[in-house]
Amino acid sequence: MQPTAKEWLARMGRGEISAVELAEHYLARVGAVNPRLNAVVALDADAVRAAARDADERRSRGEDGPLLGLPVTIKDCLDVAGLPCRAGSRARKDVPRADAVVVERIKRAGGVILGKTNLPELGSSYETDNKVYGRTNHPLDAARTPGGSSGGEAAVIGADASPLGVGTDGGGSVRVPSHYCGLVGLRPTTGRVPATGSWPDKRSGPTLDITCVGPMGRSTADIALLLDVIHGPDLADPFAHPVPLRDWSAVDVAGLRVGWYVEDGLAHPSDATVAAVRRAAGILEKAGAAVVRVEPPAVTEATELFFSALAADGGDGVRALVGDAPDDHTEQFLDLLDNPRHGSSTSAGDYFALLDRMFGLRSRVRRWIDGYDVVLAPVAAGPAPRHGEPPQGVAAADYGRYEGFNYTHTYSVAGLPSASVPAGVEGGLPIGVQVIAQCWREDLVLAACAAIERETGGFQIVDRPALS
């Protein structure tokens, strides 16, 4: 198995490998796996090599940086100057001239932008597929999806063709692909990381503060490293706040109050999913935490609220961006745009009534979770489904419905930090467990993830089977 991101950085610091050599390694790796995955959709090899040479020169001058020389991939809804940013849409063809804030911070920290990764159009689906670049495949089984919407990121990191990446998470778009592909992926507290430089603009639609930018990687330490680089307000994102990031390595897991559950009143998890959550709870209990099985408050409306918010303008905002010509969109995108089950609004009164319900759920969940340091729950009801099939917990006739992801929708609407960490296997496919904490307590989430990861072995996907 390849070194983790932090191990690569240590090797470069000791002079065992140069940034140029590391860049060539990952360029070759992408070249080897991408024909099967279709995960990387934009890449400038010359720019990658130039950035790597610059990193080597900086290191030779005695300069340093937390990501100096490390390749990083970026979900293709975040601007990278000089590379297309299509977000899976035929509508946007201009090439950005400026970086998203998180990309700018990664570059300043010495990171080398390896490439852009695929997503469903406008991040609209748990299947990563669109009419621009096509479908992305799971790193273990090309007949399965790596999830969405950060499916390209999950696939390329899961195939060990990128050491670290940036995704976005609205309803679960970092956590679900990480769960499907055996990664650690964090949705930070709403406001922890600015979304400035995303397309579409994450703050201009009716969901307001629901979508977050977050790190994805192969270890807890890796995503903590990236979070430390990209967090903090930028004075442009109105929801980004100057709250200090606490040191996760200083958390004593033995002192944690841990709650866990597997049923939320809507989704019905597989046996292996239940076993993974129980296993994670047992690991924390063995480490000295006070662990108790709990029942969440009423959260069965989370999925309906999430999609009602997306459709609160009746789809007018999306149509203005990309149109609704059938030939330009996948069937699932059109279904999401037009499906009356997801609700719509035609008046300000309706929208404010929806916000009242959303904030009611947010308050209810936050008050409940304040009784614990972390809560464990499924990420989704089962492992990665086959292309064109519904996820666990959704009937075949209801393909395109999302009740199987109510676990992640709950904490999206609540605006809480939550992560997926590998904790089990079902049919040879990874199963992650969701770790949730109160606002701004990413340190508790990361500490619990690290404790679970130490006992389960964490990321192991490339060992079944070899991918090179």
From TrEMBL:
Residues 21-446 form the Amidase domain. It comes from Actinomadura decatromicini. It holds the Pfam family Amidase. GO terms for cellular component: endomembrane system. This is Amidase. The lineage of its organism: Bacteria, Bacillati, Actinomycetota, Actinomycetes, Streptosporangiales. PANTHER family: FATTY-ACID AMIDE HYDROLASE, FATTY-ACID AMIDE HYDROLASE 2.
